[in-house]
Amino acid sequence: MNTQSVMTLSKQMRRLFTILICSILLITSLLSIAEKISLLSSSSKIVLQLDSELALSKIDRWLNGNVTFLETIQADIELTHRYYHTLGMSDYFERMISPHDDIVNMYIGLRTGEFAAGHGDVAEGYTPLESAWYKGAVDNNGLFISEPRISAITNNIVITLSKAIYDTNNNIAAVVAIDVELGVIQEIVNDIFSSYGVSVILVEDSYDVITHFDDKFTRREDYVVSVFETGAYDNIVQGEQNKIKYSKDASGQQQLSIHKSIPLTSWKLIASLTLSDTVDGVISTIVNSLLIFIVSMIITKVVLIKRVATLSKPLKDSVKVLSSLKEGKLKVDTSSINVNSAEVAIIVESIEEISTALQLYIAEISTTLKAFSKGDLVRKPSQVEYIGDFKEIDDSLSRISDKLCHLIVDISESTKVVDEDASYLAQSSAHMTSGTVEQRELVKQFRVNSVDITNNITKSIDQVDKTYEIVRQMKQKASYGQNVANETVDAMHDIIDSTQQISTIIVSIHDIAEQTNLLSLNATIEAARAGESGRGFAIVASEINRLAARTSQTVKEIQDILSHNLETVSLGEIKVANTSKALEEIMIAAQQNEDAASQVRQNALSQRQSLDEMAAGTTELSHQIDVGAAISEENATISEELTSKVEELREQLSKFNVS
Length: 659
Hints:
6-stranded antiparallel β-sheet, flat, Helix Hairpins, single chain
């Protein structure tokens, strides 16, 4: 066993306690971290919930303050019956809004179409009855809050609050409205963010941003951005309100978010709190736990090393003593071992007993083996008491003595048999040697005959190869002749087709000549009727008649020649076909001759291979016969030596005492 790869007991004890303490400290740290994360998460959610409620209450208070102011104006107008005309209304409105910095303008629209405002000029042809603020108040039969827009007076974002005014008959007589800047809401958003670190976003029902804690996303005259472009708020604004969920801001940082609806409007308030504080708290907890862990490990390491060193020293001394036993030093000294426990005392006592027992056993074994070496194989009775597994040594020594005695007796008997067999082996070797010489001569003559037969077959194979080549060339020429005959037949077919086409054309020419003849006859008749004036035409008709007759005669002669050619070509086609068939039969016969020649060649090659193998076998047989002869001679020599060695063995066996 490789003890260098096994850790010492002290190292194992230190490692075990280190692992246990590390596990306890690690579990404690993890629980502390988990508790810290839970507390930070809960506190973050509480802060977010409270600050979102604070922002909502401030916005709601601001909005309700403006609504209350508008309702006050409405009540004053209804009480003073100013809704009949707009005379003096501009000065009234200007006086009423002057204390309010966030109210940009106040105006009224009568049902008669008249309009008056505290600030700004009225465009020519403007009628308030078609305005959204007027229609909204009439349709709602009360308060109307418009969507954010850009004020024409200040170029800032404003919303319009309008409210219907009723006459004494409870009919809508006018609508009064105020334009309120959203700068106060932006201040609320910035204040919440700077004071508590909670970012607030105000969005419309269409998810367009109204105000944003980051000014670059706040609505301006030429800039409107969707809340989805400022961060991952999909699951927030489209989910259940007043429920805290995780989201990401424009930079991708993780945060907690919640959304709430603002009363009296379709707006939504989104409040978010980044998790950076939570992460910093977790990192701080981890660092503290790590420091506690390191300090605890250092203290534990020092205590363990000292205590384990004290407990393990007697064991190390005992191991040194056992190591000396392993090296063969049976006399050991245990006085240097500090017996500081009952276990160590048992170990020391066991080492001493083992040392004494091993010394007695080794002495007994040494005495027995010396007797065996002197030829005395009969073992004397043991003087040592063998205990435990050591009894097997006593039994083994007795068995060895018995086995050696039996072995010497058996060897003596076997020596006699070997002597007799050696004499018989010498006689057999002499007979075998003489027979081997005769076999060698016979094999030599057989090998010479086999070589002659192989040479004759090789010549026959050469002749067969020449015949095979001639047959192959004849087959190629026959195949070429057959191809030429086939091409000739195809050419004759083409000639016949062409001749038949010419014959058809000749027939057409003959028909034309017949028709020309009839026309010439008709022309002659018509010329005769014409008298003297038709004489020239009659001459021409007569010439045409003679030309038609000559054409018919020529066509007939050509047709006879073509018929003769057709018969000749058809006869030639039959003869060429017969020639092609004969060539095909020659080719088949040549193929059969080629196959037969090839088979003869293969048979000859097979016979030559068999003869070559036979010659090689004969050579090998001759070699083996020579080897057998050498072995026979060697056996004779060995049998003589064996007889000499048997005599020497008998002298040696006589020296052993087996009884």
